Amino acid sequence: MKQVAWHPKYRESIIRLLWDVPYKPAVWKWQFEQNAFGKAFTPVVFVDDDDRVIGFNGVMPVCATDQGRPVDVLWSCDFYIAADWRGKKLGSRIKGALHQQAEQIMALGVSDKACEVLAHLGWQRYQNIHSYRLIRQRASLRNWAFTGLQCLNRLRGGADRALKNYIIDIQSQLPAAELVDRLWASSAMGYGRVVTRNFAYLDWKYRRHPLACYAFLCAWHGGKLAGILVVRYHAGHLRIVDYCGPARDTALKRALIRRCRKHWRHADQISAVASDSELGNCLLAEGFFRPRSRPRFFIYTAKPSRLAGQSEWFIMSGDSDGELLSAAADTCDGRRPFSTPVENGSVASWLRPGHESA
Crossing angle of helices 250-263/277-285, nearest 10°? Predict the structure, then answer.
């Protein structure tokens, strides 16, 4: 058993190791080998004496900043060990190698079992992240109770005349690259720690996803692009997955969420995951509620004491690989496994329902 550097010759062997992820062949190159920031793919790969892959931990390196200053971070994803090598401490060796790759390593949507393992290996759970939901189906007493809570939250939120200052359109494409980059350049300094949301990143992650379709709610103010909300609809469920815009602008965030809520009035439920308290309060003011359970977001750093004095992370579900893989799984939806990417069709079919002027 030994660790080896990544080489494309290991791709098929790793994909076979990920046998329970039928869409992995379709998303592999896009997810791992077409990085929007031009960063190299450096997964942790272990092989046996016959050069067979027996352990793998994928990574998604990103560009991130802390109040505008570069931060060395990456996402950990797709951790697998061959069945005949489990229980032989290979997992600890893989994570030990992973820990050498960046100043901070992150994982979102961690399972119960992985939660215990990461905590044992020195990862710290980040508490300031929550789920938000808006339920429209009232098939049970529980849902009726949630509906009452949602109405109460909207009453508390009150009206905000500033919401009318924005013109919001819904597109299947991002605005021009220079507009998106200008928006992010003017917004980045307002955040603590955040993944760089420039055009190259948003275009790669959402428009060029090989299986899924996303829509972009674009807010305009005075003829300038003011903010973008990224959403995905599937089987009656609308997910708000990302936001690009000023870190602090309650009216803008509420205007985008309200347009989203009204446009997809046919959706049985709308959900979001966010660490930003202002965005969370805007969701509540627009009739969402916050469940007790929250996503598990873990961070590893070789010097945990440094985390205490650092800025808050701005995290949404689209940041990690979880939403991207969930989108791919929804596309599969019980059908045959994909071996090659499918045509990323127009989102027009789910943009039309509920359409009205801003």
Answer: 50
Rg (CA), the chain: 21
| Superfamily (CATH) of domain 130-294+337-351 | Gcn5-related N-acetyltransferase (GNAT) (3.40.630.30)
Rounded Cα distance, 205 and 316, in Å: 13
Residues 55 and 76: their CA atoms lie apart, in Å, by 14
Residue holding tokens 């939901």?
A: 133
Tell me the Ramachandran region of residue 315: left when phi exceeds 0, alpha when psi lies from -120 to 50, beta otherwise.
Answer: beta
Round to the nearest angstrom and report the end-to-end CA distance of the chain: 60
The residues, any chain, with a CB within 8 Å of residue 258's CB and separated by 6 or more, are 163, 286
pTM: 0.89
- Which phi and psi angles does 73 have, rounded to 5°? -140, 160
Residue 157 CA, chain-centre distance (Å), reads 27
CB distance 121 to 300 below 8 Å: yes
Query: Where along the chain do its domains lie?
Result: 2-126, 130-294+337-351
φ/ψ of 110, rounded to 5, equals -75, 135
Q: CA torsion angle for 64, 56, 114, 297 (degrees, to 10)?
A: 10
Predicted confidence at residue 349, as pLDDT, reads 54
Q: Are 270 and 288 in contact (CB under 8 A)?
A: yes
Higher-confidence residue of 195 and 19: namely 195
Residue bearing tokens 């965005």: 279
Q: Identify the pLDDT of residue 166.
A: 94
Element holding 328 (H helix, E strand)? helix 321-332
| CA dist., res. 15 & res. 303, Å (int) | 34
Exposure on the CB side of residue 294, measured as CA atoms within 13 A? 16
pLDDT at 200 over 80: yes
2-126: CATH topology is: Aminopeptidase (3.40.630)
Strand 269-274 relative to strand 2-4: parallel, antiparallel, unpaired? unpaired
Do the two domains 2-126 and 130-294+337-351 of this chain adopt the same fold? yes
CA-based max dimension of the chain: 68
C-alpha distances in Å from residue 146, one per residue of 85, 139, 222, 264: 46, 11, 38, 19
- DSSP letter for 207, please: I
Q: In the prediction, which pLDDT does 337 show?
A: 44
